Amino acid sequence: RKEVEQDPGPFNVPEGATVAFNCTYSNSASQSFFWYRQDCRKEPKLLMSVYSSGNEDGRFTAQLNRASQYISLLIRDSKLSDSATYLCVVNWGSSASKIIFGSGTRLSIRP
Amino acid sequence: DVKVTQSSRYLVKRTGEKVFLECVQDMDHENMFWYRQDPGLGLRLIYFSYDVKMKEKGDIPEGYSVSREKKERFSLILESASTNQTSMYLCASKQGGQPQHFGDGTRLSIL
Question: Is the pLDDT of residue A96 over 80?
C-alpha cells in the first residue's frame, strides 16, 4: 500500500459544480496535513493546511478524519481557474524527511 | 511572504557537464529540500538539509550532491550530467511543522 494515495483523476466537471477529492494515508502517527495546488509547468503552491476540526477558506473546505486516515478537499461553485492538479501532503513528524506527497489529482473545469 | 528563489527557470547543459542549481530562501528556515518532478512519477526527494552543513539523502540521491554552506542557500550539484537527469527541479524550504514553500522550479535539459 502506498504511504499516501489520492483519488485517481482526472476529474472533469462543469463550472459551478461541487467537487471533492480524498487522500488516504497509511501512517497513523501522521501529524500535519496540507493541500497544494499545482498548475501546469509551475511549482506547487500551498492551498491550505488541514486542521483536525476541519477548516474553510472561501469556496474550499478541508477535513481530516483520523479514525479512517484520510483528508478531503471540497471545492464549491467551481471556477475555470480551479483547473489544476491538487496534491495532498502528509507530514509524519519532526523529521524533515517524513514529508510524503500524494501523486496528485487532476481537476479540469469546463465552461 | 516566504520567498524561495531558484537561480534559473530554464537550463540546457551537455552530457558529462557539472551542473549547479542554486536555491535561496529569505525566511531563515532551517530545512531545505531538493526534489525532481517527472510526468507520472510525482515529486521525488533528492536531498534535504536540516541545518548548515547538514544534509541527508532522500529517495533518489544517486548522481547528485548538495551543499549548504549558509543557512539561506542550498545548492544541488549534478556531478556529471546525464540525459536521464532531464527534469523539473524544485527547491523548497520550511520551518518546524509549517508547510513547505517552493521555488519557481528549474527546467533542466541535458543534451
Answer: no
